[in-house]
Amino acid sequence: MKLVRVKGGKLLEGDVYIQGSKNSALGVIVASLLSKSRVIIQNVPKIQDVFDILEIIKLLNVQVEFINNILIVDSSKIVYSTLKNPLIKKMRASSYFMGLLLSLFLKCEIENPGGCDFGSRPIDMHLDFFESVGVVVRYLDEGYYLKADKLKATRYRFKNKSVGASINALLLSSSIEDEMILENISIEPEVLQVIEALVLMGVDIHLEKDTCYIKGRVNKHGFMISLISDRIEAGTYALMAAAIGKEIRIHNVEIDHLRYLLDLFDKINVKYKWEKKKLTVYRSKELKGIEIETSPYPGFPTDLQQPLTVLLCISKENSVIKEQIYKDRTSHIYELNKMGANIKIKDNCFYIEGNKRLSSCNLKANDLRGGASLIFASLLADGESKVLGLQYVERGYSYLIENLLSLGADIDVEEI
Ligand code: EPU
Asked: 71, 44 in Cβ contact below 8 A?
């Protein structure tokens, strides 16, 4: 267990450099195995989720080399394997192995994919899609047994938007040669990057708004791709800067992927400027409140709901966040209330009283974004806080502690 000690109350100033996107990396790494060739992926973040997915692909006899931020994946000798491994339970993206193995071998035996714990995270839409193309699905002893004699092309409409189900559908469709039509797919930049990878492998894909037309191909080829920068990492630093940034310059940012955040900043009175790939954010002493809801891209992302909750505690007005994606993504709220916040949860709405001063506390992180928000809250609070559970944060943020130190934070880590 790793404990983070933070002495809060200091203003931060300086530069941070955003890494490649975690969720793009996870999708693209799995997709790359469809090529059964050598693939070069640039701008890959050094985070635990990436290390874990690399361990899983090694179980399929895939060779990997990860030097600096360049990952070389060679799947020319890929073999089928059942995936019963604790790492599958640890991460959500392990569900992509269903689409992958079905695509390559028409079968998949895998443990129930896990992920951050914020309530129920079903995969019914993934399974419903698989069945629509001829896969027989069985669930037994906490594992899935998926098998198909033959895959058939279909026109399929997702009942709701799902990043994971869209990626799984893309992976599987990429091996079906007749035209597939996928309606209401997610259009998150990370999903579009998986599409980019499939196109680079030779798959014929055409996207019109959220309808995707795919003509798959059995023999795909190797390719080289550079990952987009992580919009959630950038957004987390930007939200911190809005509270405690004397001036924080965030580099390697894809501004187009952060429009929802800049809209929010305009509404709550945060000053920022951007040029090319640099976003500079300044703390606001007169933050306004807001009523906002999380929604699929291009809406405000659930992955920034937790740091936004922290920021809104110190605004001059009350706010309401309606969490529409994961209504139980609330573990940070109980911890923030221990620090002196006053946030009430009713159904999936969080009523946040503004004008609060947070005080230091012993805190416990339960998930990735929640953990990052508690570190943020500790930087904001008076006195020394301790945040237990840095390992969750390390799943998705590389160099968070180093970056905060370089911005002038009083922070260190202790192994306990
Ligand atoms: N859903 C279903 N059935 C399904 C699939 C999803 O009901 O079969 C529901 C979910 O319960 C949720 C909503 O649909 O209410 C959207 O879930 P989605 O499938 O889009 O999420 P995901 O693919 O499991 C990815 C990211 C998450 C991010 C969500 C939403 C990865 C590896 N994970 O998860 O990222 O919160 O999309 O944008 O890409 C994070 O990075 O911290 C993280 C949790």
From this structure: yes
Distance CA 232, CA 19 (A): 10
Token code pair at residue 57: 């692909």
**How far apart, in whole angstroms, are the C-alpha atoms of residue 12 and residue 400?**
14
pLDDT at 52 (0 to 100): 96
Q: Does the pLDDT of residue 114 top 80, yes or no?
A: no
Q: Where are the alpha helices (DSSP H) in 258-339?
A: 259-268, 305-313, 331-338
110 CB under 6 A from ligand 1? no
Return the number of other C-beta atoms located less than 10 Å from residue 97's C-beta: 25
pLDDT tens track for 187-214: 999 999 999 999 999 999 999 999 999 9
Residue nearest to atom 28 of ligand 1 (CA): 303
Q: What confidence score (pLDDT) does residue 116 get?
A: 66
Q: Is 29 in the pocket of ligand 1 (CB under 6 A)?
A: no
The pTM of the full predicted model, rounded to 2 decimals, is 0.97
Q: Catalytic annotation on 116?
A: yes
Query: Helices 331-338 and 305-313 sit at what angle, rounded to 10 degrees?
Result: 20
Residue bearing the bigger pLDDT, 361 or 117:
361
CA distances (Å), origin 320, targets 54, 279, 352: 40, 26, 6
Residues 350 and 344: beta-carbon distance below 8 Å: yes
The whole-angstrom separation of Cα 154 and Cα 166 is: 15
Given 116, 212, 313, 361, which residue is catalytic? Answer: 116
Q: What is the pLDDT of residues 21-38, one digit of tens each?
A: 999 999 999 999 999 999
Fill in the DSSP letter of residue 369: H
CA 44 – CA 227 distance, rounded (Å): 7
